[in-house]
Amino acid sequence: MRTNTLLMAMAGGAIVCAPALGAYTITQGTSAPTYSNTLNFDEVGGPVGGGLSSDSWTSYGITDLTAGDGNQVVTDASSVPGQSWLGTGNSFFGNFGVFMTFDTDLSAMSLQVWDPSGAPSPFGGGLAVYLFNNGTEVAADAYTPAWGGIGDEWFNIVADSGMTFDEVRILGFGFNPTTYVDNLSWNTVPAPSSLALLGVGMIASRRRRA
Questions:
Q1: How many CA atoms lie within 13 A of 89 on its CB side?
Q2: Is-contact 179 93, C-beta < 8 A?
Q3: Which residues pair with 136 in a beta bridge?
Q4: CATH no. for residue 108?
Q5: Which H helix or E strand runs over 153?
Q6: How many domains does the chain divide into?
């Protein structure tokens, strides 16, 4: 479980951090592409409710999907009066942020995010998106999150020039940082061994044709 102390320590750097130049792009907008792998939390037989295990989504290639307070919740929050702007169906809810780690490298990812933390300022607020690769932070930036039907809820993350990432952390720094995420999609990068086998197969194919 990640403690509030850790989250507050990270908060100090979240508002002043800048994305890595050239290699990673994090875009907030009204829409985003849908990549080859998807998770919308409405899948038949998918985990629903509170107190879910953080490894409930390993079959999707997500080794760990965790709320900041350790209480993972999947619920239809859009059915709560006044929250229809959350869309339809289930979403993942995390107090004090949402942390996700994948079992392979990614080249791109998109998702919807809502959080009431407001605009970033020297006195707090805002929402930060962090990217990590093999435990090392590779990019981060701060945004004004969507909430109450106002703002852009879509984020699109792209790694260029052969760069990758395998962990995404989303942290709100408002007075009551309650973060919802939904409609995740991502592209994976083949492991080096897979690429080697592909290369061998191509060479063998060329020899047969010769």
A1: 10
A2: yes
A3: 133
A4: 2.60.120
A5: none
A6: 1
Task: Please write the tens of the pLDDT for every residue from 142-181.
Answer: 999 999 999 999 999 999 989 999 999 999 999 887 999 9
Instruction: Give the span between the Cα atoms of 48 and 52, in whole angstroms.
Output: 8
Grouping H, G, I as helix, E, B as strand and the rest as coil, residue 32 is coil
* d(C-alpha 114, C-alpha 137), whole Å: 23
Q: List CB contacts of 136: < 8 A, sequence separation 6 or more.
A: none
Cα separation of 157 and 167, whole Å?
Answer: 12
DSSP 8-state assignment for residue 45: T
In the chain, the DSSP E strands lie at 24-29, 37-39, 49-52, 62-67, 72-75, 91-95, 98-114, 127-133, 136-143, 154-159, 165-172, 178-188
Phi, psi of 12, deg, nearest 5: -60, -35
Q: Give the range of the structural domain holding residue 68, as residue numbers without chain letter.
A: 4-209
Nearest to 48 by CA among 86, 78, 91: 91
**pLDDT tens-place string over residues 183-201:** 999 999 986 644 444 444 4
Strand pairing category for 178-188 and 91-95: antiparallel
Q: What is the DSSP string of 52-112?
A: E-TTTTGGGTEEEEEETTS-EEEE-GGGSTT-GGG-SS-EEEEET-EEEEEEEEEEEEEEE
Token pair listed for 148: 């109450």
